[in-house]
Specification:
This protein has about 325 residues and is α+β, with helices and mostly antiparallel strands. It is built from six helices and 15 strands.
Length: about 325
């Protein structure tokens, strides 16, 4: 139900192109600053011992963590943390962070760090990021991205980032993709709900894992040593076969049966109410149709006249 579930491809729309990406890297690198305040969570994962990986492994995910907290009013606050160790020059691409935001999703903070093999520490933050439209045409959506280059994304170095998003979604769900094309050492998802709320969990391409209830209405799911997605001839997009974890949450005693939209019947009722009355023929529409095809008795000619007006006299965007 969320954006993360779907890969939507619309004609004449493309993601950030190579020229924009080159601009991001050019602008971001000079702003890298030596820093001595790298967060403890990143230092801890950087010091943890690693197993031996195949020689063609470009990088390894040291930590993929997501903390989602929901307020009684339905505001969702999510903190994302991710750390990598770069093993080969091809792993440099992991040092580019893309964070989306739009009218419904506010980016509250964005920071990134690197720890070199010589224990040099660097930091960049939201001020160093470049903002760009998600697509070459911005007519269809208001989604934008902050793009941040993490300094010293080189073999032997550890890089990490953290950002927080806040939103009030119409569908109370969260989706966590914890598997990657590279090995993942540790993945952790924490959910914190108001006392009167509950959740429903579901797993995709992975066996269910039971959570630990740390305190009150707070649960943590944790995974370790997740194998990478191995490429195969003619395979579907790797994200469609990767492990995912999903949550739906809502008040336990909600006065609205559709607040969670956890079934297709509830989604259908929600959409029906949203579009109620949109197809009603108004007096102005009726008068316009009479002016275009009034007095015409041949049904085919009437249809042609009305269709021609719709095609040539109305400007619209088809999405």
């Amino acid at each position: 139900m969320q954006k993360t579930w779907y890969s939507i491809k619309w004609k004449h729309r493309r993601l950030i192109n190579a020229a924009q990406l080159a601009l991001v890297i050019t602008l971001a690198l000079p702003n890298a600053r030596a820093f001595a305040g790298t967060p403890e969570w990143l230092k801890q994962v950087a010091q943890a011992p690693l197993p031996t990986f195949p020689q063609d492994t470009n990088a390894v995910v040291l930590l993929d963590e997501r903390l989602t907290a929901v307020s009684p009013a339905g505001e969702v606050r999510t903190t994302y943390r991710k750390a990598f160790k770069i093993l080969r020059p091809e792993g440099h691409s992991r040092g580019i962070v893309y964070v989306y935001f739009d009218s419904d999703t506010r980016l509250a903070s964005l920071k990134a760090w690197s720890i070199s093999s010589r224990n040099e520490e660097y930091e960049v933050n939201e001020r160093d990021a470049v903002e760009t439209a998600a697509y070459s045409e911005g007519l269809y959506a208001d989604t934008r991205y902050k793009v941040l280059q993490i300094p010293a994304s080189q073999p032997g170095n550890v890089i990490g980032y953290e950002y927080e998003q806040r939103q009030r979604p119409s569908v109370l769900q969260a989706v966590w993709s914890f598997q990657d094309e590279i090995p993942v050492q540790r993945a952790r998802f924490t959910l914190e709900l108001p006392p009167t709320w509950s959740y429903t969990a579901y797993w995709r391409n992975h066996a269910p894992v039971s959570p630990q209830q740390t305190s009150g209405n707070r649960w943590t799911w944790e995974l370790a040593n997740i194998e990478p997605i191995e490429p195969e001839p003619q395979m579907p997009a790797w994200r469609s076969v990767a492990g995912q974890f999903g949550l739906s949450f809502a008040p336990k005693a909600s006065t609205s049966p559709d607040i969670n939209n956890s079934t297709w019947a509830q989604i259908g009722r929600w959409y029906s109410e949203l579009t109620l009355g949109r197809r009603e023929i108004t007096p102005s529409i009726r008068d316009k149709a009479e002016g275009i095809a009034g007095g015409v008795t041949d049904p085919l000619i009437k249809v042609r006249r009305l269709a021609s007006y719709v095609q040539h006299g109305i400007r619209y965007v088809a999405i």
